[in-house]
Amino acid sequence: MRRHGSVTAVDEVSFEVRRGEFFSILGPSGAGKTSVLRMLAGFEDPDEGDLLIDGQSMLGVPPNRRPVNLVFQSYALFPHLTVFENVAFGLKMRRVPTPLIDEQVCQALTMVKLLGKEARLPAQLSGGEQQRVALARALVNKPAVVLLDEPLAALDQQLRQEMQVELKSIQEQAGLTCICVTHHQEEAMMMSDRIAVMHQGRMWQIGPPRELYERPCNLFVSRFLGVSNELPGRVGGLVGEHRLFQPVDDEQPPLLVGTASGEQAGRSATLSLRPEQLRMARERPSPSDQVLPGRIEKVLFAGSDTKYLVRIGHDRLWEARMASGADLASFAPGEPVFLHWSLSDGQLFFE
Amino acid sequence: MGLFFLVPLGLVFAISFASRGTYGGIVWEFTSANYLDLLHPLYGKILGQSMWYASLTTAICFVLGFPLAYVIARSPVRWQPIFLLLVMLPFWTNFLVRTYAWMILLRHDGLMNRFVMALGVVDAPLELLYTPTAVVIGLVYGYLPFMVLPLYVAVERLDPLLVEAAWDLYASRWAVFMQVILPLTKPGIVGGCILVFIPSIGSFITPDLLGGARSMMIGNLIQHEYLVVRDWPLGSAVSFVLMTVVMAAVALYYRSASRTDGPWEGR
After folding, report:
1. Nearest CA-CA partner of B69 in B80, B57, B59
2. Cα A113 to Cα A108, A116, A121, A159, distances in angstroms
3. Which of A158, A322, B24, B51 stands 20 to 30 A from B231 (CA)?
4. CA-to-CA distance for A196 and A36, rounded, in angstroms?
5. A332, pLDDT greater than 90
6. Does residue A124 sit in helix, strand or coil?
7. Over the stretch B32-50, which tens digit does the pLDDT of each residue have?
8. Predicted confidence (pLDDT) at residue B200 exceeds the cutoff of 80
9. CA B65, B70, B75: angle at the middle one, nearest 5?
10. What is the three-state SS of chain B?
């Protein structure tokens, strides 16, 4: 736990990271992610709780004695030192013999594809190259954990996507254990073995990206990891293995939702569906699917797929997504449609 | 502007090659006797002494001024102008008055002596006033703000993340200072040292009032030649020697400072 004055920035955060794992802490700004990272690096101390690396407590151990290296969001490269000297800094501080420094720095620079630029100063490098130097400067020390603070945030979109792939392959190749802090959900999902979703100083859910996306534990996690089409209502009685769900909105017909929970009938809940789980049809589809009628509000062509914003009832817009090029009848704005989905897809969140 | 600087300078240069009239006037006869007179060991001793006092003053100002500047630059932004104002506050009163105040403090029965005696550090009052120590104390006091201000600017520009990065990369606090803070604040350090060294080496009020006869500095010599002995040509020659020494020192300093000496120098 960590308090900043009266504000508790991080509370009851507990997680374990396995060796060689890429672990991301994902959350909106102000969630307390950076505080966690600074505690791991040793710049801040937790007010309560403990922090173990390889079974050893790191409480009270200053940053220069922790087997942990941080890749700063702004890179924080030493402007007066060359690329070589920047990367060699940590080794030199640990008094590694010079021939060994040369060898290891070269290895690290090869890994990040910067060989031949050893003599440059950071100011003479592009943003992507600076990012690589920052990465090399950390991984050359072979730390137990590499901490990444929004590692790709300063790069433009294209470079960012390239670096995501590259960072991941470097991590796998070098067998690094990484803890990455980011607010970018796609980035976290693509690079991580596991993700912890953080909000208001707490970790809400920890798990592999797929599990988090498909089985979020609450609405916040669901919304943060992607588009969540929602419908508030009340749960009703059991129908076989499913439960009735009465939307609160209108005179919508009751729906069936597959849920394992034994919540009391009459409790308010929210139904959530991912855009890709929804299908659209002009005619009322097969009775095995759950159906909601709606009207197309907007058609957004986005290249590989097309987004449809569909108005459900009065004030609810749902997003459906169809792959472009599929042999689907194209829909036009204003058309009435039926949205339908498999019984197993919808998910209920209780308040 | 250049004219106002160069014309008097030319005049002084010219006078330094003239000779002294019987009653203190200037006789326009070319001679290099003034410069040859300066070869006398006494003058060399005064010059050396001045350089020693000025160097010591600069070093002490740096040691005191750096932490001060660092603390100010890293304090909350709204407090910084107030701290800087406090640093410059002494300039609001006359330098002469402030030096007199130091005389009172350093006197045989002054505050300083009463204080150390009350603490029981010494039994008899220390001989402080009219010693080289008093001169250096006075100079440090007078020129410390000139050191603090450029250092403050330099530290303020230093990204605190660089300090954290070095610390994270296994650097001890001393290594962080030597490898990162010092090289990156060098322009401020050079500026501060020059701003302290130049007025220190040429000062005459401080050694005159606090130093007594034994700690004469070159500024006193110039003043003495001009106003007491009324030997303007000799005084001008001394001025020129002083200026040459200062310029040489500054040039040397700049050269050593502009060289990038990272930790892998000579690799």
Report:
1. B80
2. 9, 9, 16, 15
3. B51
4. 12
5. no
6. helix
7. 888 888 888 888 888 888 8
8. yes
9. 130
10. CHHHHHHHHHHHHHHCCCEECCCCCEECCCCCHHHHHCCCHHHHHHHHHHHHHHHHHHHHHHHHHHHHHHHHHCCCCCCHHHHHHHHHHHHHCCHHHHHHHHHHHHCCCCHHHHHHHHCCCCCCCCCCCCCHHHHHHHHHHHHHHHHHHHHHHHHHHCCHHHHHHHHHCCCCHHHHHHHHHHHHCHHHHHHHHHHHHHHHHHCCHHHHHHHCHHHCCHHHHHHHHHHHCCCHHHHHHHHHHHHHHHHHHHHHHHHHHHCCCCCCCCC
Secondary structure of residue A275 in the 3-state scheme: helix
Q: Domain B42-258, what fold?
A: MetI-like fold (1.10.3720)
Please give the angle made by the CA atoms of B214, B220 and B226, to the nearest 5 degrees. Answer: 135
Residue A75 DSSP one-character state: -
Q: Once rounded to an integer, what is the mean pLDDT over residues A225-242?
A: 85
The overall average pLDDT reported for chain B is: 85
Among candidate residues A77, A144, A80, the one with its CA nearest the CA of residue A112: A77
Q: How confident is the model at residue B69 (pLDDT cuts 50, 70, 90)?
A: very high
pLDDT digits (tens, 9 = 90+) for A106-129: 999 999 999 999 999 999 999 889
Distance CA B141, CA B64 (A): 11
Residue A248: count of CB within 10 angstroms of its CB: 13
Contacting residues of B for A137, CB less than 8 Å apart:
169
Neighbours of B71 (CB within 10 A): 12
Of B238, B145, B255, give the one whose Cα is nearest residue B195.
B145
Q: Are strands A178-182 and A145-149 parallel, antiparallel or unpaired?
A: parallel
What pLDDT score was predicted for residue A6? 43
CA distance A25 to chain B (A): 20
Mean pLDDT of all residues in B151-176:
94
A70/B171 touch (CB, cutoff 8 Å), yes or no: no
Please identify which residue in the block is written with the tokens 């001008």.
Answer: B236
Minimal CA separation from A95 to chain B, in Å: 10
Query: Cβ A69–B184 below 8 Å, yes or no?
Result: no
Closest CA to B206 of B58, B59, B102: B102
List chain A residues with CB under 8 Å of B159.
74, 76
ipTM: 0.81
pLDDT of residue B148: 94
**Pick among B168, B172, B174, B182 to test the A interface (most A CBs inside 10 A):** B168
State the pLDDT at residue A5.
41
Burial (0-12, 13-18, 19+ Cβ within 10 Å), A116: exposed
Q: Is B161 on the interface with A (CB under 8 A)?
A: yes
List domains and CATH numbers for chain A. 2-218 (3.40.50.300), 227-350 (2.40.50.100)
Q: List chain B residues with CB under 8 Å of A41.
A: 168
Q: Is residue A88 predicted with pLDDT exceeding 50?
A: yes
Q: Could you tell me where the beta strands, DSSP code E, fall in A60-161? A: 68-71, 145-149
- The order of strands in the sheet holding A255-258 is A255-258, A242-247, A229-239, A268-273, A347-350
Q: How far apart are CA B235 and CA A273, in angstroms?
A: 94
Task: Pick A232 or A315 by higher pLDDT.
Answer: A232
Partners of residue A348 on adjacent β-strands: A271
- Global pTM reads 0.80
pLDDT at A95 over 70: yes
